[in-house]
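Following up on my earlier message about magnesium ion. Here are the inputs again, as you asked, copied directly from the submission form:
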Amino acid sequence: MSSSQQIHIALPLKYRPMTFDDVVGQEHVTRTLRHAIKSGRIANAYLFIGSRGIGKTTLSRIFAKAINCLNPNGVEPCGECSNCKQIVEGRSLDVVEIDGASHNKVEDVHQIIDAVQFAPTSSKYKIFIVDEVHMLTSAAFNALLKTLEEPPPYVRFIFATTEGDKVLPTIISRCQRFDLRRILTNQIVSRLEYICEKENINVDRDALLAIARGAEGGMRDALSSLDQLISFRGNTITEEDALNVFGLVSRKALEDLARAMLTGDAATILHSVELFDSAGKNMRRLAGELMQHFRNLIVFQALGKNAPELEVTADQADSLEEQAKLCHPSRIFKIADLLAEMDDKLRYVLSVRTLIEMTLLKASRVAKVATIEEVMRAVQALKAGMNVSIETQKVSTPVQPAEVPQKPAPVEVVQKKEAPQAKVVEKKEEAPRRELTAEERRKILDDDKLNNLLNTLPGSKVIDVR
Ligand SMILES: Nc1ncnc2c1ncn2[C@@H]1O[C@H](COP(=O)(O)OP(=O)(O)O)[C@@H](O)[C@H]1O
Ligand SMILES: [Mg+2]
Ligand SMILES: [Zn+2]
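Thanks, got it. Here's what our run produced:
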């Protein structure tokens, strides 16, 4: 083994993007920066705001390289010239990186102001990159203001911070501001896949998905976790390994639970929750991920499989496709509401597990049982002789007051997989007023047209009406 192979370089460092093209998930920033370079209109100061490990330092350095590169490749830095190399190695005299957390006093800013007076040695620009700039004291900020507004023509500032709210508005207004995004789970998965291939790591997509889920949008965290798993497990990593690190439920288990909710399968819901809880899974994360799943289901139903808003891998998309057919969007919205309510309560509830159980059971009822309104609308539409799907078309016939029951009897459509044999009868049924008599029930059930209509309710086939 050569000595270079023995030195372990941490993955986040080893795979720091070197060009704008390499940066994942921040296209809104790279597009503007590229344009600035192309048109030669480089602002005096840039401010990158965003949570940790999503590319602030990376973009600062790429931008610094790009505007000081001796031999740029279009708007991309060449990576080969002495300027590019020095910046990457952190020894460029013209690109000064300052840690704002430890250099936050007026005296530190005075040092910057002094350095600003000296023209760059071998580059076009003298660039000051100040990280965690929100840590500067307000005296230090104020000392910087004048220079920021009227720097020498060769000086540029790049500020980065995780806490944009703490940067003085007077500073922000003198900068071009960019808000970096958390990186989508499927984008993290693709990046991990690329890196694993380069590193000869044997790992399936669900394991990478688990790592990405655990990282919650942070690329550095994802790469660090991958690094850790490789050092525990060697070159083969399973989904189980990754799930255990974060206390996450497997993708399949999560999808099975969602399916149980959509099909009203209370036994499976209770059993799964019990299983996850006793396996020490992070129940709050489970709640959050369920919400994410239903969010994706809503997006899927509204926009289809290829919507860019879907933050899913191909396997997840397949299961969304299957589940989208199980339940009508209006019900999925209701389930999402229930989950959102649960999310609020999770913060102060004593038994997380009980809250989750109750909410999921409630959600599974929403998914299954037809509401009174749905049945009423179905019956009214039928009376008006319209052959409509009650979910997709509003009933336009005005309702006669006399026909509106004062207190509608609870009407419940019980649904089951097998359709009853439809029998043809000529009579239509009135809207239910109080209790349905056995006779009335039979008539509704035997009414072919009504039956067809009721069967357009989400779920499957109607077997009873009460
Ligand atoms: N948008 C991104 N695309 C690709 N890799 C990224 C991205 N953001 C972060 N990384 C990875 O995480 C590491 C740390 O990123 P960095 O830019 O230093 O994060 P921060 O936002 O905390 O400054 C990088 O070296 C790189 O490996
Ligand atoms: Mg940084
Ligand atoms: Zn270069």
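One observation from looking it over: Confidence is low (pLDDT under 50) at residues 388-410, 417-433. Hope that helps, and feel free to reply on this thread.
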